[in-house]
Amino acid sequence: MRSTLFRNALGCCAGLAMLCSCAPKKPEKRPNIIFIMTDDHTTRAMSCYDTSLVRTPNLDRLAREGMLFRNCFVTNAVCGPSRATILTGKYNHINGLTDNAKSFDSSQVIYPQLLHQAGYQTAMIGKWHLGSLPVGFDYYSILPNQGEYYQPSFIENGDTIPEQGYVTDVITDKAIRFLEHRNKQQPYLLIYQHKAPHRNWMPAIRDLGIYDSVTFPEPPNLLDDFSDRGRASKEQLMNISTDMWDAWDLKIAAADTLHAMEQRPAHRTFKDSKGDDYKQANNKAEDLHRFFQVYNRLTPAQKAQWNIAYAGRVAEYNRLKPKGADLVRWKYQQYMRDYLACVKAVDDNVGRLLKYLEETGELDNTIIVYTSDQGFFLGEHGFFDKRMMYEECYRMPLLVRYPPGIRPGSTSDAFAMNVDFAPTLLDYAGVPIPTDMQGKSLKPLLAGNGQAPAGWRTATYYHYYEYPSWHMVKRHYGIRTARYKLIHFYNDLDEWELYDLQQDPHEMKNQYGNPAYSQVTGSLKQQLLALQQQYKDTNPTEK
């Protein structure tokens, strides 16, 4: 029944799109577009970028058969704001979604609407996370808010539909079903977005314990003491040592504790922690409650597999009772085992989608983009999460495959940003790019073997707003050039950080105030002001 309704809805909307006065009467063969985005997937966890942690053969295939960008950066390293920038081609002070507490203004023009008007059939499937429902799509099936890893519900064209299975698999099932039932007379845009590998890193049941025998290499600054940094670096709340939760993040709740939680009344709830309240990071009741909400979504058979899979971890923790640096190292290994198992499921499912496209003969006529909403800390500086303008979360993965226009195995070191994605896809579809979009089409880089054309940007601009809130990262803005990075933390402090990325790639020594860097600092401040004027962020401390 649902499949029939799905096909009818797509057919009706597709027919309306074909009749739209904006659509060309006899369009040329235009490329299909699949935009794949994960949540919190850092380049270090992709073997086409870095082979030290995990193998991702299907993502590697996209890089091998397309272009890999080494210097793609986010404008604001947190989920909702990055998504809003990607859709609008505008910075967050322009599109209005400066932090996750806000909702996206759906009256704004987004690139999928422009593609729809130009004759593309459009679908949005997976994680949306913008506080409002998608507008202007022929079909959408999105996770409510963050979504759930197991037995997830979806909001599908306005109706809430519960599904069985693991979220990464279910999202791919829906994406393939859309492709099967789409109008074959139209090109399409499929936005295919995963929850994984977002916190709290819940692997597919089939992948539980898959990396238990692996000892992952530690980042060189896992035990960073921030001795050469200021308050902003010290006062955040995303330390592996103190801010990971035992049950929710590390899965070391004992079986008897889980059983006790199951006996509690179903209406028992805890408020979400925000701002200073989040300093209660070791609130055991809230930790267990949040974990139990997910654990209780498992079937009895899945719970049995879960308990067997994590019994060894619980026993090891109770036996070792690690403390200090040993505890940080132990937590890091458990974090990597769960995070990378989530990445494995993403890679497997990208492979499923590629296989479908290959079997239907549509693979080479389809632009495939793979990215994440930002990078992520995997123990660097002792951190997990994102938000800060440090390299690990500022840098985004970006792979683009399109054989008719991109040389296989090519790379680009030119500066790209997520604000560029919308102009790029419009450019490839032959749709005029609105003059108020602030990004630049990456097509010249993609068509030119990664080489930057004359006049291409030589610096990137960043602005983070979400404070006080989760992880308590101070508000800041900054500029990055090929060699240097200058960051200004403001609101309850006035603090600057300057890094020489050539001499200090791990960003361990703040050079701000060092006389040897006085000319560099002055030049960067001038360039920073010019970028703020260019992007119309003229009151950066007032938002």
UniProtKB/TrEMBL annotation:
<comment type="similarity">
    <text>Belongs to the sulfatase family.</text>
</comment>
<feature type="domain" description="N-sulphoglucosamine sulphohydrolase C-terminal">
    <location>
        <begin position="379"/>
        <end position="534"/>
    </location>
</feature>
<dbReference type="InterPro" id="IPR024607">
    <property type="entry name" value="Sulfatase_CS"/>
</dbReference>
<protein>
    <submittedName>
        <fullName>Sulfatase-like hydrolase/transferase</fullName>
    </submittedName>
</protein>
<keyword id="KW-0808">Transferase</keyword>
<dbReference type="InterPro" id="IPR017850">
    <property type="entry name" value="Alkaline_phosphatase_core_sf"/>
</dbReference>
<dbReference type="Pfam" id="PF16347">
    <property type="entry name" value="SGSH_C"/>
</dbReference>
<dbReference type="InterPro" id="IPR032506">
    <property type="entry name" value="SGSH_C"/>
</dbReference>
<dbReference type="GO" id="GO:0016787">
    <property type="term" value="F:hydrolase activity"/>
</dbReference>
<dbReference type="GO" id="GO:0016740">
    <property type="term" value="F:transferase activity"/>
</dbReference>
<keyword id="KW-0378">Hydrolase</keyword>
